[in-house]
Amino acid sequence: MGAWTSYRLRIQRKRWHIRARRKSRELTVHKDRTNQIKRGDILLFSTFRNEDVRLPYFFKYYRDLGVDHFIMVDNESDDGGGEYAAMQPDVSVWTAKGSYRRSRFGVDWLNYLQRKYADGHWTLVVDPDEFFVYPFCDTRPIRALTDWLDASDIRSFGAMLLDMYPKGRLDAVPYKKGQDPIEIASWFDSGNYTFAKNHLYYNLWIQGGPRARMFFEDEPWRAPALNKTPLIKWDKNYAYVSSTHMVLPRGLNLVYDEWGGEKASGILLHAKFLDTFGEKAAEELSRGQHYASSQEYKAYAEGIAQHPDLWCKWSEKYINWRQLEILGLMSKGNWA
Amino acid sequence: MSVGVVMLVHTALKRAEQVIRHWSAAGCPVVIHVDKNVDRTVYDEFVNSVADLPDVLFSKRHRCEWGTWGIVAASQSASSLMLEKFPAVRHVYLASGSCLPLRPIKDLQEYLGKRPRTDFIESATTADVPWTQGGLDFERFTLRFPFSWRKHRFLFDRYVEFQRRFKMYRRVPDGIVPHMGSQWWCLTRQTLSAILEDPDRGVYDAYFKRVWIPDESYFQTLVRLYSQNIESRSLTLSKFDYQGKPHIFYDDHLQLLRRSDCFVARKIWPDADRLYENFLNEENPLKGAEPNPGKIDRIFAKAVERRTRGRAGLFMQSRLPRAGHENGFTSAPYSVFEGFADLFEDFEPWLARMTGTRVHGRLYSKAGVEFEGRQKTFSGAMSSNAKLRDHHAQSFLINLIWNTRGERQCFQFGPADSQFVSWDMAKDPNAQISVISGAWAIPLFQSNRNFSEIRAEAAELQRIESEHLEALRSPWAKARIRIWTLADFIETPMEALQTVLDEMGAKNLRRVTEAPKMADLNGFGQFLQNLKNQGMHPYLMGDFPTESSPVNDRPSRRKPYLVR
Known about the structure:
The structure holds 2 protein chains of 2 kinds. Chain A is of the alpha/beta class. Chain A has one domain. Chain A has 10 helices and 16 strands. Chain A has helices at residues 2-23, 55-65, 81-87, 107-117, 142-151, 181-184, 209-215, 277-287, 291-305, 321-326; strands at 27-31, 43-48, 69-74, 91-96, 122-125, 130-133, 156-157, 159-163, 187-188, 194-197, 204-207, 231-233, 239-242, 246-248, 266-270, 316-317. Chain A has a 7-stranded mixed sheet with strand order 1-4-3-2-5-12-7, sandwiched between helices. A 3-stranded mixed sheet of chain A has the order 6-15-8. A two-stranded antiparallel ribbon of chain A has the order 9-16. In chain A, a hairpin with a 3-residue loop joins strand 13 (239-242) and strand 14. Chain A is globular, with a radius of gyration of 19 Å. The N and C termini of chain A lie far apart (40 Å). By secondary structure, chain B is of the alpha/beta class. Chain B contains 21 helices and 19 strands. In chain B, 43% of the residues are buried. In chain B, 37% of the residues lie in helices and 13% in strands. In chain B, helix 3 (70-85) packs across helix 6 (189-196) and helix 6 crosses helix 8 (218-226). Chain B starts with a strand and ends in a 31-residue tail after the last helix. Chain B has a domain at 334-519: Rossmann fold, CATH 3.40.50. Classes of the chains: A alpha/beta, B alpha/beta. At the A-B interface, helix 5, strand 10, strand 11 and helix 7 of A face helix 11, strand 15, strand 16, helix 14 and helix 15 of B.
């Protein structure tokens, strides 16, 4: 049984690779600086569409953490974000012409580029509105983490998505280019998450947070998945299956301990809920390019129309990673 | 020139060079061993980079793989060279390229100068220490290990099993008793030369070549043959995690390391600029103090415990224990009251007043979660929506208790609520469950509904509660459970309440001074009789006399006998 399942998943992984190769025809080089990539560099992969306003802080944040090179896929932005990214000295940009949904939300494009450029590198795959937080991130660069993972023979590092939101209406405080979005969206839900194990892929299925609380009260099983494995020592044979929620081979999804201990883990601060959100939700809804027939965005559009306050009196205000670790959202594991 | 340093180097050569200069500046001769896996050109460059230093030599290179003989061979050749070329050296200090001196070298020289005959080497018999990983404690001295543990784990494990099965044990050479300990030592010339020049060295070397991780046992064992004065501790601060890998020090450990008063620390992250800058350039005051790594020990011990045991009652993205491995299903004690809110009209506020705890209503009510004060959300931004709660009912309880650490939670429960957590609570040692069985009949008795409906509902509730009681009475139940029938309970309600409150903890040491108001049970016996007459036998409430007329007013408590 075990061998047969493994074999099936292996075939599936090969299929994703073939698909990625096929979808790569939708990609055209905008600016290729991949010859700058040196051995041991830490790479970041991301897809974006009309995120010009977010990109400056995004690049700054990850440069400060110690990411060496960015590989970005620009899904037909028309706000100048692609040009902005191409001007950065450490960024390579591809333009993707095709459908976001039919490239499985960018996974195919990134799988292709990762297979080509990320082999043997520690690789971070995040969206422009996700900010990676890991234990000691205020005093140790990301290379300290990857060196430690290497020394511990760990190949993948989990980081749950933590939805951040402002207090009051989403459009109350406009987000300015280059600003830290967590200054505005500085609140989060600290303890309403549920965890279940996927027995085929071994990944966890985490749900909860403000989106489940506000938009999916009646259909909680539909609430978005929050589990992510964004940091992996990539090998060209690996493949993400569904966003960064699942990856094959499935051993990479085992970022949790089942015998009572805590493995080290991080958090992706998800600064989705800014003043730009209403517009974005409306656009995404009309394009129908998001997950589960934009189910999520439908729910948002309905909810957002009434300008709900995601904030409640039990919301926590973000301070630093130590707070998240005390709250039990992430863990230092045995890294000290 | 009392201390010589033997340094084993394999990576981060730039850092090693810095440290070599530091040792050398203090007048210590240094003999360096560079791993043979290091590229020839890189090696030559490294040799050139320290060519300007006096008293720095390079020894014959060996291939060093973790857990193999190479590291011992490297220490042997480098030490021999040291003893041969620097006759003034009294103590030889074994260090690695990622070791960093924390105190002035002069301090170390003085410290060792005062202890000219002492060998600092951690050396303990395997039977007495729990350090080893993977169950190979004494067996590391009696089995053979031809396969690499890192590269061929499968073969390694199988071959160990094979030898165990067929009892293929090796003999330990006569005259030595296997000891082990940290591989970083500091030995006197006398002891070290005795080990290296032993006529039986061939025998010992041949034996230890086949021992598992000989660098942790070769010198540690042989030193017992010659040393006059062993101080069984390492002068190098080096902590290991639960898998036997060394913990790494970073910039943010600066103050900890400073206060530890250790001479040398290992292992330092090569990019920890602040550590190197501070400890290599700064003029630390000479202290002459004994090393005191207590605080660092505690931090790393905690880290290991977090990795192996975790925080009790926490379910999170990197901790999802299987059933039975939770180390506590919930994180803190809590109290569940079943039937009390039905019997007493003002039970919740009364309980809150008496105990000062957080008292919720029926958390698992099908209509919605009844948080304290009927809030829409609660600690941790938990929602009062029943569907969200039932989506993962166990998580709901776990989260609630985790989110309110430090404050005891009480809530009501009953057969009318969703029963998903019935078993989980019964099995949870943190739960204190007090049940008045059959009390669910009181709201039915008070309700204004058709009797046929009441009968059907009573039958259903009785079925659910008896299932729940089965869980509570099962051998798997680990909660602190008290069950009264309704009839028993109203006999002596105050004693029962007092027992429950006493068990809840220290906050409520006083006697209960005020009783909650009991519901009017006039005619309740007749109500039960009516159910019986309809063929639905309510048995969970005990024997309720038909003609009884229980008191309506606040029951008087028996006066305690007091001697004033």
